[in-house]
Structure formats: structure tokens, C-alpha cells
Amino acid sequence: MSDPIIKAEHVVKQVTTSTDSLTILQDVSLQVKAGESLALVGPSGAGKSTLMTLLAGLDVASSGEIYLLGQALSQLDEEARAALRCEHISFVFQSFLLIPTLTARENVMLPFLIKGAKQDEVLANQLLQQVGLAERADHLPSQLSGGEQQRVALARAFISQPKILFADEPTGNLDQQTASRIVELLFQLNREHGTTLVLVTHDPSLAERCDRTLHIAAGKVAE
């Protein structure tokens, strides 16, 4: 049996303020297999997004260990964690995080620019075609609706063929009809690319689309 692509062992996350110490996550252990889709659900403030940022190496645990693609994150400095993310991981957030001065096509190609790799316009155009935005490739974000901007963000997330996609409330800023279309695209692209998906959501119907669901409440995780 192959090793999990993500593994957390007894992870604790505490935040210290000037007056006291707050425990956001306590004793979290989980495994995610390659190609699996996992939903992290729970009430607002339960620690879902905190757990996602730890699993992705965007932040470090107070104690315990997280293994990402077989690497113990506590053993990597910030630069090494960033390199690992740049090579193998993509993100889709609730806010679309497009660069306002770049066209849709240029935004999709942004991961190549960040890596210093040759920009692949053909692949960018193919992905824009897949998300139904071939005609809008030269438009700026300000000329696109919210749903169109999130579709650009999806195309950008998949252009670097990531091994893992972390999606944090990807439909949170969209109306129901637009959100449904984004969800269909997300899972379609995910299947086609064989990506591992970790999805933070408060939407039960969205969580049901995933292979597994982990419920987070008061910093603890239950399947």
C-alpha cells in the first residue's frame, strides 16, 4: 500500500496573545491518499482553514508532525516549504486573488511566471476553453463577473498539474447557480488531472461530493 500523500500526527496549533494562549487545533491526526478528495467541514471558527494552512505548509504546527508528499514539514525551513508548494501544490480561495492588471490568460499563466518557467499559452488557452472562458482570455478581472473570475482561478490552479489542490470555501462569494457550475468544474478538472483535493467548506452538499468528510469542532477532528 502506498504512503499517504498527506499525513498529520497529533498536531496541535496554539496562538499566544499578550494575555493567554489559545488552542485552535488539538491532537489532530489524519491521512489523505493520493487522488482522494477530502472535505473539512465544521462551524465557523472551528479551525478548518487553520488545519488547511498547516497541511499545506503555509504555517507550522505548535507540536506534532505533518508529512506532505513524504516530507516532514517541521524539518523544512520556510524557503524549502515554499519550494515544495511551488512545485506540487495549488490553491483556490474564496476571494479569487487575480492580479487586476493581468488578463485572464496572463493570470492563468502566473504559476509559470512565479517558477521562472516558460509560459505555455497553448495550455492556458486550453484550460480557459475547458472552463468556458475562451472568448474572455484577453479581458481583465474587472471586466469579468465573480463566477468568471473564479473560473480563471480554477484554470490557474490546474495549469501547473499540481499533485494536491487546496480549496478554501471556493464558492463562498458566489450565488447558488454560479457556485453549482464552479463545483462541477472543480470536480471535473480534479478527475481529469488525478489531483488530490482537500476542500474546506461549510456546505454539506459540497462535502458530499468528496470521497471522505472530516468534521472539525472545537479544534478536534472526527470522521
Report on this structure:
The chain is of the alpha/beta class. Helix content is 35%, strand content 27%. The chain has helices at 48-55, 78-88, 104-108, 110-115, 121-130, 146-159, 176-193, 204-208; strands at 6-16, 21-32, 37-41, 63-68, 71-72, 89-93, 164-168, 196-200, 212-217, 220-222. Helix 5 packs across helix 6 (146-159). The longest helix has 18 residues, at 176-193.
Measured as a percent range, the helix fraction is 25-40%
Largest sheet: 6 strands, mixed
Shape: globular
* Share of β-strand residues: 25-35%
CATH architectural type: 3-Layer(aba) Sandwich
* Radius of gyration over all CA atoms, rounded: 18 Å
CATH topology: Rossmann fold
Number of domains as seen in the coordinates: 1
Helix-and-strand structural type: alpha/beta
Entry keywords:
alpha/beta, Rossmann fold, globular, 223 residues, six-stranded mixed β-sheet, four-stranded antiparallel β-sheet
Topology:
Layout lengths: L5 E11 L4 E12 L4 E5 L6 H8 L7 E6 L2 E2 L5 H11 E5 L10 H5 L1 H6 L5 H10 L15 H14 L4 E5 L7 H18 L2 E5 L3 H5 L3 E6 L2 E3 L1
Parallel strand pairs: 3-8, 3-9, 6-7, 7-8
Antiparallel strand pairs: 1-2, 1-4, 4-5, 9-10
Task: Describe the structure concisely for a colleague.
The chain is an alpha/beta fold and 223 residues long. The protein is 35% helix and 27% strand.
